Amino acid sequence: MFDQLEQFLEPMYDFLLRQNRSPDPENMKAVVRWTANPLGVGGGWLNKRYIRRYDPGTVNDIKGEWEGRVYTRRFKWIHMTVRDNPMARRDPSRIAALATIQDETQRRAYLEGDPTVSVGLFFDRFNGELRSKEHPNGEIIEPFEIPDDWTLTAGIDPNWGGGVFSGGLGAQDPMGNQYRICSHYAEKMTPQENADALGI
How far is CA 142 from CA 24, 25, 130, 139, 155, in A? Predict the structure, then answer.
């Protein structure tokens, strides 16, 4: 059981996750449970690995194959907010502590339990909403075919110090508006493999 997993680094979590086993798997299942708030040192990898990948409240099978056999672990995350905590609801000072957070991003994270927010990003006002009549300032748009006369751009961070390579593919329309098409993160891939993954 991890309490506030967002305070753990991913290698720490992975190490302990691999130790989770049962001496009697027929009668005693090996289970991992954790709680997490948005933000924290582990907020980024938690979002990428679980929160943005799986819908809340659904059971998901995470599969792997070894020696011709498929192994499955099941994962489910339940989204909750301070409204779901009866102790917090009975304590106005707890709600006041969250409601009076001055930073809008942190307030959304801790009061609303918004898992999509991130503090410290260059674009700290990114709202993550699909642009529509209800959300005209949404920064995510429906997919569309990029015209041939638009300029494509690619940016990479090869991370010469080791670790994770990151890259992104973008497009610019004739008015100068920038569109992020895709992002790519990888470890131990050649420059050509990373370029291929980005489609460049």
Answer: 50, 46, 7, 10, 23
Q: 6: exposed, middle or buried (C-beta count within 10 Å: 0-12, 13-18, 19+)?
A: buried
pLDDT in tens, 125-163: 555 667 777 777 677 788 899 999 999 888 877 666 555
Neighbours of 167 (CB within 10 A): 19
CA distance 124 to 23: 47
Residue in the structure block whose two tokens are 């967002």: 6
Domain ranges of the chain: 5-75, 82-111, 151-198
Rg (CA), the chain: 21
In this prediction the pTM is 0.56
Report how far residue 200's alpha carbon sits from residue 33's, in angstroms, rounded to the nearest whole number: 41
Q: What is the pLDDT of residues 39-50, one digit of tens each?
A: 777 887 888 888
Distance CA 38, CA 41 (A): 10
Name the phi and psi angles at 141, rounded to 5: -120, 160
- Cβ-contact 38, 109 below 8 angstroms: yes
